[in-house]
Design brief:
Blueprint: E1 3-6, H1 11-14, H2 17-24, H3 34-45, H4 48-55, E2 66-69, E3 79-80, E4 83-84, H5 106-114, H6 179-193
Parallel strand pairs: 1-2
Antiparallel strand pairs: 3-4
């Protein structure tokens, strides 16, 4: 049973509740604790509908699904420097700035990252705790192993032109050019060279 995360800015996040119910057969609206979500998953997976789906070939069940409607940046900083982060476009950006010359926000970043309680998820040497290891999908069932999601399994060697042909003879103080314009010529020809392999389709 899939768990869909919908932000309020997404298309489905803006769809009224009634069409969502018709589309997904149910909407759970609210904030769920991790414990509650796990209980719901366990209960729904063991539900009668799954057993019926295995034995009735002509029966196509409507599989249950949880839709969690959450704001963007839900687990990050709510407000920073009097600007709303959670639920706004700023959640797409760097929520708290930090650089070598300005370390005043280091404590805020530390507080934010520690809110995920890594000490409960990892051992002292940084390994995942044994209790969580069963959650890792077995080999062959991992998303990256799906040939449709992993381009490496459908990989065809990239044909590239000789980059030296695109070199610019720079005369200091005289040569005028733009890096992206010159790089664009190289990328253009890479696409042409690989039309037959459909690497860029």
């Amino acid at each position: 049973m899939p768990l869909y995360l919908l932000s309020k800015d997404s298309f489905l996040g803006k769809v009224p509740v009634l069409p969502k119910i018709e589309t997904f057969a149910g909407v759970f609206d609210g904030v769920f604790s991790a414990e509650l979500i796990l209980k719901l998953f366990e209960g729904l997976f063991r539900a009668k509908i799954k057993k019926e789906a295995k034995h009735k070939k002509a029966y196509r069940p409507i599989w249950p699904m949880i839709i969690l409607n959450s704001p963007k940046g839900w687990t990050g900083p709510k407000i920073f420097e009097s600007k709303q982060i959670e639920g706004s476009f700023r959640a797409h950006q760097v929520p708290i700035t930090l650089d070598k010359t300005n370390k005043k926000n280091l404590a805020l970043i530390e507080e934010w990252l520690k809110s995920y309680h890594p000490e409960e998820l990892f051992t002292d040497d940084g390994k995942l705790i044994n209790e969580l290891k069963p959650l890792i999908p077995p080999k062959g069932k991992r998303m990256g192993e799906n040939k449709n999601a992993n381009g490496g399994l459908l990989y065809k060697p990239l044909k590239t032109p000789d980059f030296r042909k695109y070199a610019i003879n720079v005369i200091p103080g005289k040569t005028e050019s733009q890096d992206m314009m010159e790089l664009g010529k190289y990328i253009r020809d890479i696409i042409k060279f690989n039309e037959e392999n459909r690497n860029f389709h």
